[in-house]
Amino acid sequence: HWLNRAYAEADYTPVNGRLAWGVKADHETDKYLDPTLGAGLDLYREDFGFNVGYMIQPKTKAYVSYTRTIIHYTVNPVLGPDNNNKSHTVAAGVAGQLAPKITGHVEVGETYRAYDSAIQGQPLIYRSPVVTTNLTYTPDKYTDVILTVSRLYQQSIDANNAFYYSNNAVLDLKHRFPRKFSAGIDLAVGRDQYVNSQTFLTTVGYRRDDLYQGGIWVEYDIQQWLSTGLAYAYSERDSTFSGQFNYQDCRVTWNAALKF
Fold this sequence. Notes:
4% of the residues lie in helices and 74% in strands. The longest helix is centred in the N-terminal third of the chain and has 7 residues, at 35-41. By secondary structure, the protein is mainly beta. The two termini are 26 Å apart. It is built from 2 helices and 13 strands, in the order E-E-H-E-E-E-E-E-E-E-E-E-E-H-E. Strand 10 and strand 11 (203-223) form a beta hairpin. The chain has a 13-stranded antiparallel beta sheet with strand order 1-2-3-4-5-6-7-8-9-10-11-12-13. It is globular and about 55 Å long.
C-alpha cells in the first residue's frame, strides 16, 4: 500500500486581541499493490477547510470550523456504484490549554455526505455526528497520559456498504526514565458499524466489529538523534459475522529511528 500526502496549514493567534483563525488543505492518494484491494480502495482525497475562533483564555481558543471533502476512486468498478462522494463537515470545539495540566482539543460536529451513485435501494445522502478529541495530561515533566476519542466515516471495500462508522477510544501512557530509557502502555477499544444489511454464507444481518488492542514498548536513546526500541502488541476483532472476520494477532517489533 502506497500513501502519498501533501498537507498545509496556517493558524493565526493574536498577541493581544481575541479573534483567531486558521486554514488548511490536504491531498492524499492511496494506491494498493494488491489489485483486488486496489479495485475497491485506490482513491484520492482532498480536504479544504477553515476555522474562526475566539481566545477565551490566553492559551485557549473556542472555535467553529468548516471542511469540504472530495473522495474520488481511481478504478472504475465493473459492477455497482463507484462510491465517489463529497462531504461538508461543520464542527465546534475548544483547543489549547484546557486545564493547568491538560492540553489538546475537544471537537464535535456533523458531516453531510452525498454519493455520486448509490447501491440499489440505498440512499445517496448520509448525515452523522462526528467527534475528534485528543487530550494530553502531564502530571510531571516525565509523564504523558494521552486520551484520543473519535467517530468518523471510513471507506469500505464491502459491496453492500460504501463506508462504515468507525468509533474509537485510545489511551496511551508514556514515561521517561533516567539513563535514556522511555516506556509506555497503549490500550484501545473500537467499534465499526456498517449501515446496510449484508449476507455472508448463511448469515444475514448488519455487520458490527468490536476491536480491542493492547501493547507495551520500551525505547532507548543512544544519542539525541538516534534511538532504538522494542514493542509488543496484541489485537483482536470480534465480528457479528464471526466466521469471516474474527481474528487475533500478536506482534513483536524492533525499531531504530533517526531524529532530525
